[in-house]
Design a protein that fits this description.
The protein is mostly helical. 48% of the residues lie in helices and 4% in strands. It contains 20 helices and six strands. The strands form three sheets. It has a two-stranded antiparallel ribbon with strand order 1-3. Strands 2-6 form a two-stranded antiparallel ribbon. It starts with 37 loop residues before the first helix and ends in a 13-residue tail after the last helix.
């Protein structure tokens, strides 16, 4: 299932992560030391803290954010894949995926899961050895590991569908037995179980803004729960956990002022709107400069600005702040969100440390709107949608104006508004898939209409035929994993055996 290191290492692949971290990540001040063996490691609370900080290091030093962007955007109308892109990108883009495509490899997610399992399995024993290690601190550390593990499994479930569940640490290849896939619904149940367990354990605050935005808090856990409940169609539960975040009254939408919106949310990061952000800095740059700017792999979709954001031809000062010089640059078709310091200034390669946004307050409001619509509370859902639209100064031409009793119309409105609000944040494919799949794919038109919008004419019919088979919505299992499993893993039926 994954590339497991020897038992000799206490914390596989984290021991070498001795990063020199800048001011925005000073909470990562303890890290596992090189060469410490397992029997010498799990002795003190400081070592547990180092192991948990190592989990966060793994999130920013692994290919995780590149993969989250790819899986969330490459199959959508929001991007184009440039001529610089190697063949695996175009295969994924145009529904030509095979089990030999390296992008079907789930190794990144399972490696991080194994790091989490290491903490969950081994941290409790430290309390017996270190009398200064309190139960509250132990619970908080385990809660963080549970939540990160849950996030990884949520990603696996919505990218591959049915996947193996491994909830114990694997220290060596000899310990790793092939595990059969579990149905997606069981994987989501396991995600909820981890999050429900973690919610009372994790901290509400770490006492400083960078840690509160960059580490797992109770609000992160509730945002993850809301997201997962939406995938389970548990609309009342999703509403309830969104309300826990809203009622705390510590998050707000940043101002929609065009001169500050991008700078506050992305250029600087850790704003009052952020709930969980993967923290890059000058010592650990993000990977987006190469992906979006220097020999860019991805560019903005050709019709994103004109169709999704639109513009006011009569008044150039009237525009959606999330559009030009918000999400993208209309002058160059560059994905701008990760390079803009503000609307007029871009960052250099040395300044490429814009955070990866996992959840922010706008997401909570729109997740609640989706849940309320599922409960047939249409007017309440619309009130939240219009709150987001007002902040972004959405153009009148993008207002679908559905009635409060028009559940399907509100669904379409939410999906489109989420595309505007979270452009290039790795959410588009998952938003479309989640809403399309409800009630036995009652809204498969959300997928097929999107495909029609970006598929080249000579590929359109072939792509539509593939996407009408719902098994194609989930990736194949990488061929190497199939070989290693000795017949235990079953291939996604769309891709054969």
């Amino acid at each position: 299932m994954m590339n497991i290191l020897s038992k000799k290492l206490a914390i596989p692949a984290l021991a070498f992560a001795l990063l020199s971290l800048g001011s925005c990540s000073k909470w990562l001040d303890l890290k596992p030391q090189e060469g410490v063996v397992a029997e010498d490691y799990w002795q003190t609370k400081e070592q547990v803290r180092a192991a948990v900080n190592g989990l966060y290091i793994s999130l920013i030093t692994s290919p995780l954010t590149q993969e989250l962007f790819m899986h969330g955007e490459i199959r959508t109308d929001m991007v184009e894949v440039s001529t610089f892109a190697p063949q695996p990108y175009t295969e994924y883009r145009f529904a030509d995926m095979l089990p030999t495509n390296s992008f079907s490899n789930w190794g990144t997610f399972y490696r991080i899961i194994n790091y989490c399992n290491n903490v969950i399995d081994n941290a409790p024993g430290v309390k017996e050895l270190d009398p200064t290690f309190t139960q509250a601190d132990l619970d908080a550390y385990i809660g963080e590991a549970l939540a990160i593990r849950a996030w990884m499994y949520l990603n696996l479930a919505r990218i591959w569908g049915d996947v193996p569940i491994k909830l114990t640490y694997t220290a060596s290849d000899e310990d790793l037995a092939a595990i059969a896939k579990s149905p997606q619904r069981n994987v989501l149940d396991a995600v909820v179980a981890d999050l429900v367990r973690a919610e009372p354990m994790v901290r509400e605050t770490f006492g400083n803004t960078a840690a509160d935005k960059g580490k797992i808090t109770r609000y992160t856990v509730n945002a993850l729960l809301a997201d997962t409940y939406l995938w389970q169609d548990e609309f009342q539960k999703a509403t309830d956990v969104c309300d826990k975040i809203i009622d705390a009254e510590i998050f707000e939408l940043v101002s929609g002022d065009a001169s500050t919106w991008l700078s506050e949310l992305f250029g600087q990061g850790n704003s009052i709107e952020g709930i969980f952000e993967l923290q890059y800095d000058r010592q650990q740059l993000n990977p987006f400069y190469a992906l979006f700017r220097q020999n860019a792999i991805y560019t903005a979709g050709q019709n994103v600005y004109e169709v999704l954001f639109q513009f006011d031809a009569a008044d150039p000062e009237n525009f959606d702040v999330r559009g030009d010089r918000g999400a993208l640059s209309t002058a160059t078709n560059m994905i701008y969100k990760y390079h803009g310091l503000n609307r007029t200034q871009t960052k250099s390669l040395e300044e490429s440390y814009t955070h990866w946004m996992v959840y922010r307050y706008a997401d909570v409001l729109l997740m609640k709107a989706e849940a309320l619509n599922g409960l047939n509370r249409g007017q309440e859902a619309l009130d939240l949608i219009y709150m987001i639209r007002e902040r972004g100064n959405a153009m009148q031409g993008t207002d679908l104006n559905p009635g409060a009793d028009d559940q399907q119309g509100i669904t379409t409105f939410i999906v489109e508004e989420r595309a505007r609000e979270f452009a290039y944040e790795g959410k588009r494919w998952f938003d479309v898939l989640r809403n399309a799949g409800r009630n036995n794919y009652e809204r498969i038109d959300l997928i097929t209409s999107m495909i029609v919008g970006f598929a080249p004419p000579d590929r359109q019919q072939s792509m539509l035929a593939k996407y009408r088979d719902v098994n194609s919505h989930y990736l194949p299992i990488y061929y190497i994993e199939m070989q290693r499993s000795g017949g235990v893993l079953e291939q996604n039926p769309f891709y054969g055996n």
